[in-house]
Structure formats: C-alpha cells, structure tokens
Specification:
Structural class: mainly alpha
Largest sheet: none
Low-confidence stretches: none
Number of helices: 3
Radius of gyration: 21 Å
Mean pLDDT: 96
C-alpha cells in the first residue's frame, strides 16, 4: 500500500470511529431519557424506589438520585 493509501485508510478509520462514538452517545442519551421517564411514571404510580429499581434493572440508590429535585 502506498503512503497516501495508508493515510487515507487511517483517516477513514478515524472518521468512522468518531461517527460511531457520536451515534453511541446519542443512543445512550435516548435510553437515559426513556429510563428517567419510566422511573418518574412508576414513582407517580406509588412504586417504592426498591420496586422501581427492580423493574428498571438499576439500584435503588440510582432511582433515588434520579428522583431528587
């Protein structure tokens, strides 16, 4: 492979990784928002932090952190 070809390939890999990370971050934010909505909804329905934690597969401590004002 020529030096130019190597440089172009490396640049393409770098850009692809950056796009992948950006997409991963966006998806993570969406999932976090969905989780927070579910936690607030369950809390409004009278569920305890422990019950919410079990339903959302997170710790009761994290549920409490999300519900803090």
């Amino acid at each position: 492979m020529t030096r130019l070809g190597q440089m172009l390939m490396e640049d393409g890999i770098k850009k692809g990784m950056e796009r992948g990370m950006e997409k991963g971050i966006e998806e993570g934010i969406e999932k976090g928002i969905d989780l927070a909505k579910k936690i607030f909804r369950l809390n409004e329905q009278g569920e305890t932090a422990e019950m919410i934690a079990e339903k959302c597969n997170i710790t009761a401590e994290n549920v409490s952190k999300i519900l803090e004002n």
